[in-house]
Write a structure and sequence with these properties.
Layout lengths: L9 E2 H8 L3 H9 L8 E2 L1 H15 L4 H14 L6 H4 L1 E5 L2 E6 L2 E4 L11 H8 L8 H22 L4 H14 L4 H13 L3 H14 L4 H13 L3 H14 L4 H13 L3 H14 L4 H19 L15
Antiparallel strand pairs: 1-2, 3-4, 4-5
Helix pairs in contact: 7-8, 8-9, 9-10, 10-11, 11-12, 12-13, 13-14, 14-15
């Protein structure tokens, strides 16, 4: 997965895994018109998602981000998508925007570019105390190492370099759940189960409703033969995000293999509502059809031949 030429595009699931967000978060941002609805993402789209994530991690309200994005589109000629085209730097609840090497910084309402001060103050100055310089510098360095890890994954760099980048990010910011999940996924593909589980659990300590971490733990336990624990994490992922298609898929497989057809049917149907057109959907329809036919003739066990949706 990590080897080969640079990727030109990413699926929704790949984009979520790389950035470290859930489908629920992504859909929320799309509904708020912060990002467009996409099925395939370019690397520049990942940058936009990462910028949004940094603002939300710094507890900047979504409404203010939306107003800022819209205002920047109106005020800056030639900037159609500020989250892609501008460098967003967070310092606590305050932000600075870098454009072509010039910095717009909210400091006591003063900005370095020649816009109307009152308007830009309401746009870019957020309440709250400034993060101490040393802490802000560590945050920026942690984000730089995280982005370095993403770039190294994209270009198929040697695994030790990718692992080092994420570990350096975590040394500087121990609360970076995205770095924890990405690092855990690398260990998962190396079949280093203990290391992968530790990373996923650390991510859940930061965010107990992190659906992707629960989903990946479910896959880990499924892969190692502990289906009851796998199912518990798929269920947790679905509590955090009821529209998590892959969690419905894998939960359906487990219920089907355990001889609980009604529960399997419920999850197959939920999966097909969310993902009706993929290759995986054809498998889901086949398994659902098996269960429906078995119910008509009196029931028989099915479903041992299908594969789980993978860690992402």
């Amino acid at each position: 997965m990590l080897a080969g030429p640079p990727k030109q595009s990413y699926s929704r699931k790949e984009a979520q895994r790389v950035v470290g967000i859930s489908e629920r978060q992504l859909r929320s941002w799309e509904k708020q018109e912060l990002v467009p609805r996409l099925e395939q993402f370019a690397f520049s789209d990942l940058i936009a998602l990462r910028s949004l994530q940094k603002l939300r991690q710094n507890r900047v309200p979504a409404g203010r981000i939306r107003r800022a994005v819209r205002a920047l589109r109106e005020k800056l000629d030639g900037v159609a998508d500020p989250l892609k085209e501008l460098k967003i730097v967070c310092e606590g609840k305050e932000i600075a925007v870098l454009l072509e090497g010039q910095k717009m910084e909210a400091v006591s309402g003063q900005l370095l570019l020649d816009f109307d001060r009152a308007e830009l103050k309401s746009l870019l100055e957020f309440p709250g105390e400034r993060v101490p310089a040393s802490r802000a510098a560590r945050q920026r360095e942690a984000e730089a190492w995280f982005e370095k890890g993403l770039e190294l994954e994209q270009t198929g760099a040697p695994l030790p370099e990718i692992i080092e980048a994420y570990e350096r990010s975590l040394e500087l910011d121990p609360h970076s759940a995205g770095a924890m999940v990405n690092l855990g996924t690398i260990h998962y593909h190396l079949r280093k189960w203990d290391a992968a589980e530790r990373c996923y659990r650390q991510a859940l300590e930061v965010d107990s409703d992190y659906a992707l971490a629960h989903f990946n733990l479910g896959n880990l336990f499924d892969e190692t033969g502990n289906r009851p624990r796998a199912l518990s994490h798929y269920q947790a992922a679905l509590r955090a995000n009821p529209n998590y298609a892959d969690a419905h898929y894998n939960a359906a497989l487990i219920y089907q293999s355990q001889g609980e057809p009604m529960r399997a049917v419920r999850h197959w149907k939920a999966y097909l509502k969310l993902d009706p057109a993929s290759t995986w959907a054809s498998i889901a329809r086949r398994e659902l059809d098996k269960l429906c036919r078995a119910a008509v003739v009196g029931g028989s066990k099915t479903g041992e031949d299908s594969s789980v949706r993978s860690v992402s």
